Amino acid sequence: MEARLPDPGDALSGVDMFATLEPEIRQRVVAAAVPRTYRKGQLLFVENDPGESLIVLRRGAIMVFRTAPTGERAVLSVMRPPEVLGEVSLLDGLPRSLSAEAIEDTTALALSRGAFIELLHLNPRILDAVMRSFGALVRRLTEQNADHVFLDLPGRVAKTLVRLAGDSSAPMVTIELNQSQLAEMAGGSRQSVNQAIGSFSSRGWLRTEGRRIVVTDLPALRRRAGMTDR
């Protein structure tokens, strides 16, 4: 039996899509959602599955990818709380265009499209929130496409690592991602990505520990990716 979250009033307060809504409306959204748990390595959905729900991440991490006819994966992003995925399905109701896999044990809230439409009738401002989230998705995909045009592979690897590190200000950041997954995200072969990682390691920017990558000089990676240092 699935238990409701203990504090529904605050469950969505940090989620950009819902942060501007009144607490009472957020409570309605949480009340209409169903808690979900996913084990590391478990698929949330695959391409062409029914696009029936919005997923709000509470804990863990999700890898979003597309699969080629040859079976190769192209990883588009790694999503972490308080991000959401599946907002496109809320708008068009069509099958999933992407696949999603938990790369850490993950907890989430699933809001069905039917529940969303019902909430929308009660408060149209929810649609504004979804449209903002959809715009952020388009911008992210546009930037990713530009990276493949303007950045060389080591630059893309560096930028991928910076994104995975998030907003951390710690001197060292551990990234739970193996080099095969990193190659899928950066859009290169594993051998080429391994060479880039080896180059970064020799410069003291990171080190590898089995299936982990420990970033030790995030500003250097940001510079290599052509990003403004903070």
From TrEMBL:
Keywords, alphabetical: DNA-binding, Transcription, Transcription regulation
CDD domains, per the entry: CAP_ED
Superkingdom of the source species: Bacteria
GO MF, any single term: DNA-binding transcription factor activity
Domain Cyclic nucleotide-binding as annotated: residue spans: 17-120
Pfam families named in the record: cNMP_binding (PF00027), HTH_Crp_2 (PF13545)
Domain HTH crp-type: 151-219
Cell division found in the keyword field: no
GO cellular component: cytosol
Protein's UniProt name: Crp/Fnr family transcriptional regulator
Organism of derivation: Virgisporangium aurantiacum
